Amino acid sequence: MEAVNPLSFFRIHDNAGFEKSALSVFRFQYEKNKVYQSYCQYLNIKKEDVQHLEDIPFLPISFFKTHEVKTTLFTPELTFRSSGTTGIQQSLHLIKDAALYQLSLINGFRHFYGSPSDYVFLALLPNYLEQKQSSLIYMMEALMKKSGSKDNGYYLYNHEELYHKLQELQSRHQKTILWGVTFALLDFAEHYQLDFPELIVFETGGMKGRRKEMVKEELYDTLKKAFGVPDIHSEYGMCELLSQAYSKGSNLFSTPPWMRLRLRSEKDPLDGSDTVSTGVINVIDLANLYSCSFIATEDLGRRHPQGIEILGRLDHAQIRGCNLLVL
Asked: Do 281 and 301 form a contact (C-beta atoms < 8 A)?
C-alpha cells in the first residue's frame, strides 16, 4: 500500500492531482478503516475495482452516530460532537492529529479570504458556546489565535456591547468578520442598525426552535439591511469533516483545492457520476485522512456555474431511501 502524505493535499492545483490523491486516500482508508472497509465489502466493492473518482463509495454520515470512524488505530487528540437537540443522538468525530485540522482550516480560510492576521474576529455564537466539543468553536479559536488581535471576542446575548464594538472597528477602518448563528443575528438585527459595508457577516445556520424558519432569500435580505452589507457569507462544514466550503454570497459554495462537493441522485444513493443538476451532496475531504474522506451527507444541493447551492436537509423518508445502514 502506497504511503499518503497529508501535506501533499495542500499542494493540489488541478483535477488530475485531486483524483490521484483521492484514489490514494481511498486505498489507504479501505485498508486501515474497518468501518469503511466493511461498508465497501457489503456493497461488494473491492479495492482494485476503484480506478476512477466516480468509482469511490461514500460512507453515509449517520455512521458517525453509531460507530467510531477511524483510519488507523490511535488515541484522539480532539473529539468533536455535532450540535443537536436533547434526545437526538450526536455524531462523534475522533481527531487523530489536531495540527492537521488546524492546517486545513487555516489554509482553507486563506484560500478564500487571505491571512487571518488581517482581520478581527467577532463570534455571536451563544448556543455553540454553551455546548462542549464544538468544532466551530475550535475553528474560531484557531482563527482568533492566528489573528492575534486584542479586539477578537465572543458574544452571548450582550448585543449592545457588540454594536459598540462594531462601530468602533468601522471607525478605525479595521477589516472585521462577524460569525453568528442565525437566530442570534436576527435577534441583534431587530434592535440595532449598522451601515458597515466592509463588514463580512458569516451566517452559520440554526434556528434551534428559537424563531420561525425563513427562506434564505428573506433571511439574507433582513441581515443585509440590518448590517448594511452587500452580501451574507456562509461556511459549509460539519463536525464529521476537517475542511470547509465557503460562500461569499447567494448561498453558493466553493471548496478549497483538496475538497469537493459532488451531487448524487436522490433515487440512487450509490450514484457517483456527479452529473445531476440537483441532488444529495457527497463530500470528498482529503484532509480527513484519519477518519473518512468520502462522506454521503443528508443535505440537498443544486449546481450553478458559480458553485453549489445548499437547499437544506432531506426529510426522514428520503434519508431512509438514501442511507444504507448495514453495519
From this structure: yes
**Count of helices and strands (H, E) across the chain:** 10, 14
Q: What separation, in Å, do the N-terminal and C-terminal C-alpha atoms of the chain show?
A: 25
Q: Are 310 and 268 in contact (CB under 8 A)?
A: no
Nearest to 64 by CA among 85, 46, 43, 39: 39
CA nearest to 136, candidates 87, 84, 100, 83? 83
Closest-CA residue to 108 (of 154, 71, 139): 139
| 169 CB neighbour count, 10 Å cutoff | 20
**How far is the C-alpha of 283 from the C-alpha of 257, rounded, in Å?**
13
Please give the full DSSP string across 283-305, using - where no structure is assigned.
EEETT-TTS-SEEEEEEEEEEET
Which DSSP state fits 157? Answer: S
CB atoms within 10 A of CB 100: 19
Chunk the chain into consecutive blocks of 10 residues (it has 327) and report each block's average pLDDT, rounded to whole numbers.
84 96 98 98 96 97 97 96 71 96 97 98 84 87 97 94 98 98 94 97 75 82 97 96 97 98 92 94 98 97 97 66 45
What is the rounded distance in angstroms from the CA atom of residue 284 to the CA atom of residue 262? 8
Q: What's the rounded Cα separation, in Å, for the pair 174 and 264?
A: 42
